[in-house]
Amino acid sequence: MIPSAYQVALWLHLLFMVSIVGTLLVLRRGLPFGSSQDPSVVRPILRFATAQLAAGLVAGIVVYAMLIRSVSDSGGSLASQTHRTVGIKILLMLVVGACLGVSSAMVKKGRTGPAATLQWAALATLAVAALLGLQVW
Fold first, then answer.
1. What is the model's pTM?
2. Does the pLDDT at position 115 exceed 80?
3. Engineering a disulfide at 103: which of 23, 26, 75, 115 sits with its beta carbon 3.0 to 4.6 angstroms away?
4. What is the DSSP letter of 26?
5. Interior angle at CA 28, CA 60 and CA 129, nearest 5
């Protein structure tokens, strides 16, 4: 059985979102203390997490567009609650991107303590977005 384009986009979105959580957890808890404070180690990991976020956001928007098209082709429309929830999720992903970007700039300047706080904030924001995603799915 060949998966539909919707299923592929949905699984890609889920893969990227789960992998960014794993990347941030490894960054915060999986590295030895010296490595987790070293900008030459942390910044590439943060860049990778940002790339995962961008890919997951694009995949999520594709899933949303396909869902809208599918429902409208069948003569219906999505509930306004679904549109609100997806809008909130997109805003939360922008917050995560900002946390990662500012965190990377802080690491570059050697301020790893506040950067770690922002990385934890990004993880918490991802958790909230995931819980909202369960409502849409």
1. 0.90
2. yes
3. 115
4. I
5. 25
**In the numeric block, which tokens belong to residue 134?**
């369960």
DSSP 30: I
Across the range 73-102, mean pLDDT stands at 92
Backbone angles phi, psi at 29, to 5 degrees: -125, -15
Identify the pLDDT of residue 96: 97
Q: How big is the CA angle at 120 (ends 116 and 134), to the nearest 5 degrees?
A: 160
CA dist 69 → 31, 36, 66, 74 (Å)? 44, 44, 5, 9
CB 83 within 8 A of CB 126: no
Biggest alpha carbon–alpha carbon distance for the chain: 58
Q: What is the mean pLDDT of residues 93-120?
A: 95
Residue 137: name the closest of 27, 14, 19 by CA.
Answer: 14
Whole-number Å distance between alpha carbons of 17 and 23:
10
Cβ neighbors of 42 (< 8 A, separation 6 or more) are: 27, 36, 107, 112, 115
Angular region, 74: left φ>0, alpha ψ -120 to 50, beta rest: alpha
User: Do the Cβ atoms of 10 and 64 come closer than 8 Å?
Assistant: no
